[in-house]
Amino acid sequence: MSRRTHTQDLSAAKAAGSRVVVVGATGNVGSSVVRALSEDPAVGSVLGLARRLPGWRPAKTQWQAVDIAPGGADLVALFTGADAVVHLAWQFQPTHHPAETWRTNVLGSLRVFEAVAAAGVPVLVHASSVGAYSPGPKDHRVDETWPTHGWPQAAYTREKAYLERVLDAYEGKHPEVRVVRMRPAFLFKQASASEQRRIFAGRLLPGRLVRPGLVPAVPDLPGLRFQALHTDDAATAYLAAVALPVRGAFNLAAEPPLDADVLASLFEARSLSMPSGPVRAALAAAWRLHLVPASPDLFDAVLRLPLMDSSRAREELSWEPLHTSVEAVGEFLAGLRSGAGMDTVPLAPDQPLSRRLRDAADRAVRA
Fold it and tell me: Which long-range contacts (CB under 8 A, 24 or more apart) does 206-212 make?
């Protein structure tokens, strides 16, 4: 039997459809994007890159264990022959060590961008965020021309904003690459619930207690008005961005905007008006004690994020979310209660609370 060469494999994939590489393919967004690509007849093959290989095996998809941080894999070799690279990789923790997240999120992204150009990939779709935007209005929506300087105190928004500046220069240096920047609102789905609880609330929050009747009130804080989107709806926008000859930034958000009253209705609770200071102080104390991973700086950023106008995505990508923001959050809360997840390391379902308590005690001893 003759051995097929790498060039022959690439030629066969191109004959069957486009070849797309997804960087950061096993998390909340990556799993939805990979699924959407694998189900699209126009896509011939998907190469999913992640630090740890999943058990999940969608159609037309191959996996490669890759670290994008400096010193990691040869990305040029992995990107060669691709029709598009979708860059989703992001490290949220450790929030107490921002130099570590900077190494992956910023320096790793720079490696991805340069490898795209060096490999001759014609399309780069980058996951930016509503978090890249400068503070803005809560009573009307802004379009993609709103300044993207982030909230400088929070590592997440600082890193997202920095990469916007990098891409400004990159587009001028590499006009042959069609660069698309996706700026989604907060993304939720049932299978991401366990991961997002670990990232933002920590391992010890009992998800089964986050249910109607057990949450007495939702704080109504100044500035608590934000947008959400089902992750699968975001994935359809990414799919369109790969296929259509568009460039630039796209806001992605579903209706309606979420505030304390809407959230309270999900819990069959009441909203309780209160200043943000005491809530921030409690969060800051818990963060300093390593009881929660979400920093008070990110809390500050959320209260300042603008509402986004998604008209450009609807018009140029023919995109329309199938889920409301309330449905997306409702799915997420159902996932919290059930400990939902997927067969990927980031989305792994919850361990029993007793196991999490033992793990937390072990980490405290080691620290």
Answer: 206/353, 207/336, 207/337, 207/338, 207/339, 207/350, 208/336, 208/337, 208/339, 210/333, 210/336, 210/337, 211/267, 211/333, 211/337, 212/266, 212/267, 212/268, 212/269
pLDDT (tens digit, 9 = 90+) per residue, 119-160? Answer: 999 999 999 999 999 999 999 999 999 999 999 999 999 999
CA–CA distance, 194 with 351 (Å, rounded to integer) = 9
Of 269, 293, 284, the closest CA to residue 219 belongs to 269
Number of helices (H), then strands (E), belonging to the chain: the values are 14, 15
Angle formed at CA 338 by CA 266 and CA 360, multiple of 5 degrees:
110
pTM over 0.85: yes
Separation CA 239–CA 126 (nearest Å) = 12
Helix axes 28-38, 231-243, angle to 10 degrees: 50
The C-alpha atoms of residue 217 and residue 225 are separated, in whole angstroms, by 16
Cβ atoms of 183 and 250 closer than 8 Å: yes
What type of residue is 61? T
Kindly report, residue by residue over 289-325, the tens digit of the pLDDT: 988 999 999 999 999 999 999 999 999 999 999 999 9
Say if residues 228 and 258 touch (Cβ distance below 8 Å): yes
Residue 359 identity: D
Output b/e per residue, 196-208; b: 16+ Cβ within 10 A: bbbbbbbbebebe
- Spatial distance between the Cα atoms of 264 and 113, rounded to a whole number of angstroms: 42
- Note whether 38 and 22 are within 8 A (CB): no
